[in-house]
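QA checklist item 7 of 12: single-chain prediction sanity check.
[x] sequence parsed
[x] length recorded as 325
[x] structure emitted
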Amino acid sequence: MATPVSTISPESLKISQRQLFAPSLQEIKNVLSPALAENFSEVSIEVVDCPDLTQQPFTLAAAGLGGSKTILEVGGPSFLLPSVQRDKVYELKSILNRINNGKMEKKGFVIGAGAGPWPRLSRNCEMMMNVIVSPTDLKNETRLSWVGPNEKCILEESLENDLRFALLANLYLSEGKPGKVLKVHAKKRTGNLDFIATMQKALESHYKDKLVGLGGTFLLKQGKAKQHVMRDFSSVPLTTEKALNDWLKFYDMSAPLIAVGTFVSAETDLDLRVQHFHSFSHHGEGGHYHIDTTPETVEYLGYFSVAELLYRIDQPAVGVTFGKD
């Protein structure tokens, strides 16, 4: 039975707005290409028309990543660590209304990684947000995963009208329109960095005095990935990286996995999470992406867009130095 918990009033949320530096896709391609080539033996990166992402293998709620491209970062690991703040429950549509001055007048397509609505399951869970919200329509294909009996990963679709999430989220907001995107294809990992970290660190190195952010989706086409799912909330404070990792349940999850999330060039004074992707599948697995575990056979295919605006929502007063991977 769902636990009755009120969501945070959007009017009470502190929201900071930051204009992002938005280089051309061609420039981003030139920045990312050398880094990807250092970390993978086969790399192709192109500026292309976005394919229809509602189709296989991505199966997202909207076709494209274009229109009013925005990153939303809500809450943070400080609301989970060292002890959970259970009152940090948010509702997406009310947040979108708030940043649109009280009224949403166009479609919002939101994808990304976060903590799921624990009151929905009466337990902690991971969220892979995948939803279209508009003044007249709702299409919610969000997934939730949690650690079930015998520590098996359980993955299910969210309730259609439940747009809640908890604690933290890194979300990419657009109008779901077609348009140009960055297509990144990489095979056979030869370096130590994961697929997203390779690109994030390239941005960090190149744009030292500018904040750049990307959002989108990638497919683990071949191989397996190390992913975690949060167990139910810890009864004792998690004060170290070791305690956190002992609490998390790690899995070796199999392709195909469809990941959604964001990455930015720097933490800045906004205490941003520089990368955060969660993946779901159609074979019952899903969680927080860390890195592939089959470097010899791994294959990635990603589509990303450059965000123009960032909203930092309910930034914790005090950050944490661990748990942000």
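[x] summary fact logged: DSSP finds five helices and 19 strands in the chain.
[ ] second reviewer sign-off
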